Amino acid sequence: GHRQTEQFDSRKLFESIVGACLSARAPIGQAESIARSVTRSVEDWLQTHPEVTSHDIRRVAARYLKTHHPDAAYLYEHNKVML
Q: How far apart are CA 67 and CA 47, in angstroms?
């Protein structure tokens, strides 16, 4: 059970953060601002972590998102669990 490797896609991360913020009823401008900040933080974190999983990225992004919007962070962390 190995998965294919995949390049980190900052746009994909940005869009998923925006989606979580909008789901938590943040205005679009705020959602985009938060997503930019979280994406930059994750990109900085990646500089010292050459090999990571998508789970690592999700965990780190949620940690940064929690400082900006705890409700959105909760939705982001549990996105794959919710029906």
A: 21
- pTM here is 0.89
- How far the first Cα of the chain sits from its last, in Å, is 25
CA distance 4 to 25: 34
Nearest alpha carbon to residue 46 among 71, 13, 16 = 13
- Alpha helix positions (H), 4-69: 10-23, 28-46, 54-68
- Segment 10-61, tens digit of pLDDT: 999 999 999 999 999 999 999 999 999 999 999 999 999 988 999 999 999 9
| HSE, side-chain direction, 13 A CA sphere, residue 80 | 5
pLDDT mean over 59-69: 97
